Amino acid sequence: MAVARSRSGAVEMSELSCTLLRMVGPSFIDLFSGAGGLSWGLVQAGWKPLYAVDYWKDAIETYRANMPDHLAECRDVHELDAPRLARVLEEVPDWVVGGPPCQGYSTVGKRQRTDDRNQLFLQFRRIVAELKPSGFLLENVLGLKDMSFEEEVATAFRELGYSVQWFILTAAEHGVPQLRRRVVFVGHLERRFLGVTASHDPDTYVTVGEAIGDLPRLTAGQSATDYDREPENPYQKEMREDSVSLQGHAASKHPAYLVEAISHVPDGGNRRSIPDHLQPKSGFHNSYSRLASWAPAVAVTQNMGKPSGTRCIHPSQHRGLTTREGARLQSFPDRFHFLGVSTSQRLQVANAVPPRLGRALGEAIVDPLRWE
After folding, report:
1. Is 123 within a domain?
2. Which one of 18, 74, 102, 312 is the catalytic residue?
3. What is the CATH number of the domain that holds 49?
4. Domain of 364?
5. Which of 28, 158, 329, 344 has the fewest CB within 10 Å, making it most exposed?
6. Is 102 labeled as catalytic in the residue annotation?
7. How many domains are there within the chain?
8. Considering the entire predicted model, what is its pTM?
């Protein structure tokens, strides 16, 4: 394969070579895989999945149901080591990817540096050290950066001989109808990663209305399993590809007084529009707020079905979001079904890496022009 270098040192390859590289794709294992958002995105980018692991039974069952040809185990990552992985893997992975549980880093609630979950990335590091893949990809919520963990994490992998860069990515800049930000670490034994180029800007962000506007209308407590209109834009068409019915499109039941209260909130509005006699007695300033149909969602949370959650009321319907609407806002296609009770499904959606963001990362990593 012909390889040349530009004056800047970046590797340049022929168009044919680039195409062949994308066709083959690197192999990977996914640690802390959850329901499989990152794996799904990487596979869409042409990567080869070898193994996935998570200690959350519902999430692994969802992973297996949607990617039955992938080897996925429900297992504590502390139990994994090189000999066991050698027994289950068909080859040594080119990459180790994943994201340790984020609650210890999250900007929501009280954060503690001593939280044991803040050290789970060291288990990720241990497996990287034992397998010595060519590269690793580690992601987490932005709260990790806010606590100045980024250099601690980077240093931990540089000590293993990896060139490590970290980036803050906004999901909306990569085609996800959500403004959630993630901190991403990419390390490689031989090369330096230059980052991911945004495909969208504020003028072209996918909005909430564009993402979920074709789904059947529901009142509180209703559900639907059939589409009742045609897709209206490319995003909806992509989400509905190979899907013949809806899963998870069920609205939570709300008491009548709550439905009346939120009926006063306009598209994109907040609780200030609720009359005094209907004002909820509890909640934060951004509780009982509607999503804006003309903008991306702020962030999808496990409380997406509760009007008292953080900006999770449907833009025009008087209810919280359904699991399927949350999945759309995370860029999961409708053919991706979530297993478990509704609270578990919503948590799986909220905790996942948006598949479109995973795909953007996967495509950038296999692009020779993104390295030097």
Report:
1. yes
2. 102
3. 3.40.50.150
4. 26-201+354-370
5. 158
6. yes
7. 1
8. 0.89
